[in-house]
Write a structure and sequence with these properties.
The chain folds into two domains: about 35 residues, no CATH class; about 190 residues, Metalloenzyme, LuxS/M16 peptidase-like (Cytochrome Bc1 Complex, Chain A, domain 1, 2-Layer Sandwich), CATH 3.30.830.10. The chain has ten helices and five strands; from the N terminus they run ααββααββαααααβα.
């Protein structure tokens, strides 16, 4: 109850109204229906989310579970949301793992046929480092080290050579389309205005987000890949299926 009273208070909220509205009438309704809700000043200052730009080592854990196939997951520490470097990282991950035209999909799924799915996406975070989320599902009896070696090879080559002009154009067009899709509905526009108001104090930033992505250069994309998409800047989670022998022993033990 105390948490709700503290954080779900008007002075800790953003209200966004989008549509063909009469601003004066809308503000009157807002005052009528929301104006009587009391504010609350018990909110604590946010914790410091400061972390080094890179992890400095590879963190790794292997999990044995009843999964249908081996999987490789990794999270890379990337720049904060709201920065030009974060936009560059978004383009880099789109080129590397954003869909069936991406480098990792072409390498692992189409060419090597060692994976059934390969994706690399950005989880934007403000006030703390963003995450580059790699997710690869292996095919057949392929071992994870083979997948990992291919991933590292592609990331190293991208860092060394940078993106092509065609890749930049395709990735920027893809991100622009996704962004315009979000703004294509009333609810989507309201969400984005609220997000920028809450995180950055300026809802108008939602209207210039596309241009900021389009302004990023290939050199900036290569630089963020070289600095951040490295083995010593990731936490790795490997899923291994529980072996048949191990499962049979467990069943026998349960029966006894």
């Amino acid at each position: 109850r105390n948490f709700f009273r503290t954080y779900y208070a008007p002075n800790n909220a953003v209200l966004s109204v989008v549509g063909d509205i009469d601003p004066e009438q809308t503000l009157a309704w807002i005052e009528k229906y929301f104006g009587s809700i009391p504010s609350h000043d018990g909110k604590q200052p946010p914790r410091d989310g400061t972390l080094p730009e890179t992890i400095g080592e590879q963190l790794r854990e292997v999990v044995e579970e009843e999964v249908p196939a081996r999987a490789l997951m990794a999270a890379y520490r990337l720049p904060h949301d709201g920065t030009r470097e974060c936009d560059a990282a978004d383009i880099a991950l789109t080129i590397l793992g954003g869909g069936e035209s991406s480098r990792l999909h072409n390498r692992l799924v189409r060419h090597d046929r060692t994976a059934v799915a390969a994706g690399f996406g950005l989880l934007r975070l403000a006030g703390a480092p963003s995450l580059g989320w790699l997710d690869v599902k292996t095919s057949g009896g392929v071992e994870v080290p083979d997948i990992e070696a291919a991933v590292d090879d592609e990331l190293a080559r991208f860092a060394a050579e940078g993106p092509t002009s065609e890749e930049m154009e395709r990735a920027q067009a893809q991100l622009e389309r996704e962004w315009l899709d979000r703004l294509g509905t009333v609810a989507g526009r309201a969400d984005e205005l609220c997000r920028y108001a809450v995180l950055f104090g300026d809802p108008q930033l939602a209207l210039t987000a596309v241009q900021r992505v389009l302004d990023v250069t290939a050199e900036e994309v290569q630089a963020v890949a070289k600095a951040r998409l490295r083995p010593d800047n990731r936490a790795v989670l490997v899923y291994e299926p529980v072996s048949t022998d191990h499962s049979e022993q467990e069943e026998k033990g349960a029966g006894q």
